[in-house]
Amino acid sequence: MSRFFVARPILANVIAIITVVLGLVCLLTLPVAQYPQIVPPTIQVTTSYPGASAEVVATTVGIPLEQAVNGVENSIALQSTSGSDGSYTLTLTFSVGTHLNTAIALVQNAVNSAIAQVPQEVQTQGINVQKVSTNVLLIGSLYSDDDRFDETFLSNYAIIHLQSPLARLPGVGQVQILGAGPYSMRVWLDPPKLQSYGLTVLDVQNAIQNQNIQVAGGQLGAAPVPSEQIFQFTVSTLGRLSDVTQFENIIVKSRSPASQASQLKATPPQGETAAIVRLKDVARVELSQQTFATFSGLSGRKAAQINVFTLPGANALTVADEVRRAMAQMREKFPPGLQYAALLDTSAFISDSIHGVYLALIEAGVLVLIVILLFLQNVRAMLVPATTVPVTIIGAFVAMAVLGFTVNLMTLFALILAIGIVVDDAIIIVENTSRYIEQGLAPREAAIKAMDELTGPILGVTLVLTAVFLPASFLPGITGQMFRQFALVIAATALISALNALTLNPAQCALYLRPAAGERQVNRFYRGFNGVYTAIEQRYVGAVRWMTQHPRVMLGLFLAIVGLSVATFVQRPTAFLPVEDQGYCIVVARLPPGAAQPRVRELAAQIDAVLGAT
Known about the structure:
It is built from 19 helices and 15 strands. The protein has helices spanning 2-7, 9-29, 54-69, 100-114, 120-125, 151-167, 191-196, 201-211, 244-248, 279-282, 316-331, 346-376, 379-403, 409-438, 443-469, 477-512, 524-549, 551-571, 597-613, and strands spanning 42-48, 75-82, 87-94, 128-132, 136-144, 172-178, 183-189, 219-220, 233-234, 251-255, 275-278, 283-289, 297-298, 301-310, 338-345. The radius of gyration is 38 Å and the shape is elongated.
């Protein structure tokens, strides 16, 4: 095989160029993330039972839905929350690697089978099933410096003008608006007035439902019609009510005059009319927020929070750029006084981390080439491993794309370690070829003879490296998901390095290496380096000689080092991932059960004051 490529160096270089081009294309298209996707995917089922307590929601809504979705394929956990405001949230956690598009269809089918078992009020509200991502990309805030906008306006502005455009961006999985919530027509009933009119809450509810409907009015003059009919009209009727006045005029109760039963026989007494009770007579109607259970603020100002989550496998850096670009465009259309601030941007830390690893990757490659040049002391010989490193490292991105990996800290760390591995094959090929050139063979024959001896060892070393790292890819659970990409990337670089060693490196040795014309001249720097190296080598040989003469002492020293290492290892704290300062802090405060919202607002104000003074 090597003889074939030595005779055809252009083919060998074309293979290397194609590998580099494909690697660059894959590098530009691969998703970028901090770590591999190790968090189990989740699907959330949400609904609401207005006016119901948490216990009622749990028994009438939670039990039917949980029984229906229990046992969905690849689901590993269920968690539900029933709120005192009638809200219900069911979170299903699936195994790592589960395809959420398939899972959400299964969950939706299970929920549909249980809809008939939940109360009619819940069916009217609707049951939402959606994918939920835990990958928080960005948290922003809408506010005004002079508090000219209230919480309801801020939340609704974000819902109407920002949520949908952001959710349509590629890679965005979910956009949450936290704060006062959407606008809602609120009806505050007056119990004494209801009692005086002989009405109940159910009477008011039925009146609103029956008169706040969309009616299809039909058409006038539609076929079949007489031949003299000239025009055809569509009847437009007042549909759903939209303002406070329309809701206030809803008729809750009407009482016919006493003479209506006999109005065909007699004329009603003069001045007697039907008694009408409208909604404004028994309640106060206002356009306000849908729920008062949540609130948000920013440094003591009223605000609405915008949380943007990414889809699993999305390029966090690209999605963050798209979100920032979209917000910059929409910001130009803000009403006067409305401000936007990005409170948390996780892509900045990811970008800095990836940039740091890229720098370490370049530095490692440069250091490896410097070391090779110091020891080979031949620029032509250094060119062979110098081309092997970029071809192998860039070609590894092709393997990452084929395996469905992302560009993250684990895969880039694997590439850094692989730099020291991939140059080994090139170095031994250069050394063996140089040895035969010094013996008088031509570079081409020397490369062929060297590869006849090294093909077997190169394949053996590659298979050993692959066998060492492949088992790590079969580790179960989150740990296996974390280190699978690390192990497979190193194995892929070993295979690509072996391919280069069998194709590109022999052809390069035949082209680049030349026999020395007379005695080789070494400059002053190399002479100094060789002198220092020779002195160190002699001391090392002397140390090894002493060790071989005192085996018992060395065995005792070895056992002591092993024992000290084990003792130190046992005492060290353990963690899944190292703790990194990402530049933000989350404060969680808990009040006793049943604490009213004024207490929560007071505590939030105290926390703001402490943080503001820090």
